UniProtKB/TrEMBL annotation:
GO molecular function: oxidoreductase activity
Protein name listed in UniProt: Nitrogenase/oxidoreductase component 1 domain-containing protein
Residue intervals of the Nitrogenase/oxidoreductase component domain: 17-230
Pfam families: Oxidored_nitro
């Protein structure tokens, strides 16, 4: 049934993806909501709150009449008051379902705030009804266009990594693992774009690595400006395929975000699988489609794919397994924090 999800928990929404990109960038992030969406972001979708590194995230605290009457002046006043108390490099306003329903004009809101403050104002028109990767992509676009400096001196062995936010990882703190792996490969500095200076020196990296399709447009933007090459690569999944797992002549389904699925598909094919198919509810970029890919929209799409696909092995977050109780093959857990929120 369309829209009915009985087994798989809701995925992280677009406002969470946008807020995750802004996290730690020295900005004031305003979630344009009544309080619930901000609570979800801070309590569930952003594990860095518990790592000791903080970020200024506020709820707009919209009341019923504020939303109905479109009292943008009250929101502007609240934001200006926050600017007086928080030293910030910019203001980012992130949309949620309420402003989406009432048709909030973010550009007008941006102009109203810009007249009263001396720092840049960024708006991301997320709706709360899209998935996290759409919010990520929109936030990257907004920050890149605002803060990437057109002149930069390349630095030897400095690598940028796009898409490196907890929602895209197998485990929320895998960003540290990426740094360790690349430094072992003789990289002097790894830029994860998790602070504003990283964006300012985006033109100084020698190469970019894209670990999420949501980061692809940002890498392409940098390539267009500076000619810096990029490649797609995922990290941390090397130990999932243990020696006791036989893939020779097997039919394998991989369910994850596109770059992670593609990286795993290459490993599976190298181990002798006869058929490899990737699938995802998240965005799929045409330039990354090197294996047959199935776009999933509903929970039933996944159930039907497994039922009709005759797969010997499925590789995906263990939460998906609840939706296919009759699958008798081998299921390999491939965690995805945006799906299950597991530590």
């Amino acid at each position: 049934m369309k829209g009915l999800w009985k087994y798989i928990s809701p995925f992280a929404p677009d406002q969470s993806g946008a807020a995750s990109v802004f996290y730690g960038l020295q900005g004031i992030v305003v979630i344009c909501d009544a309080g619930g969406c901000a609570g979800n972001i801070c309590g569930f979708d952003e594990p860095r709150w518990f790592s000791g590194r903080k970020s200024a995230v506020f709820s707009a605290g919209l009341r019923d009449m504020d939303a109905i009457m479109g009292r943008d002046d009250r929101l502007v006043a609240k934001i200006c008051q926050a600017v007086d108390h928080v030293q910030a490099a910019f203001i980012a306003i992130v949309g949620t379902p309420v402003p989406s329903v009432i048709g909030t004009d973010y550009q007008a809101l941006k102009r109203m705030i810009a007249k009263k403050v001396s720092i840049p104002v960024i708006t991301v028109d997320t709706t709360g009804m899209g998935l996290y990767d759409k919010g990520m992509e929109a936030a990257y676009k907004a920050v890149c266009s605002q803060f990437i400096e057109p002149l930069a001196v390349p630095k030897k062995n400095m690598v940028g990594v796009w898409g490196a936010i907890p929602l895209e990882f197998m485990h929320p703190m895998d960003g540290n693992k990426i740094v360790d792996i690349l430094q072992k490969d003789a990289v002097d500095k790894v830029v994860l774009f998790d602070c504003l200076d990283d964006y300012r020196q985006a033109g100084a990296v020698t190469k970019n690595i894209v670990i999420s399709p949501a980061g692809l447009e940002a890498a392409q933007y940098v390539y267009k400006i500076f000619g810096i090459p990029y490649e797609c690569r995922y990290f941390g999944n090397d130990n999932l395929l243990t020696n006791d797992i036989v893939l020779q002549d097997k039919s394998v389904l991989i369910v994850h975000q596109q770059v992670a699925a593609l990286d795993m598909a290459k490993k599976v094919r190298a181990l002798g699988a006869k058929q490899v198919i990737t699938a995802s509810w998240f965005m799929a970029k045409k330039e990354l489609l090197s294996f047959p890919h199935i776009y999933l929209k509903e929970e039933d799409d996944f159930c039907q794919l497994v039922q009709e696909g005759s797969f010997d092995v499925i590789i995906g977050d263990i939460y998906f397994k609840r939706a296919i109780p009759h699958f008798t093959g081998v299921y390999i857990d491939y965690p995805h924090f945006a799906v299950s929120g597991r530590e």
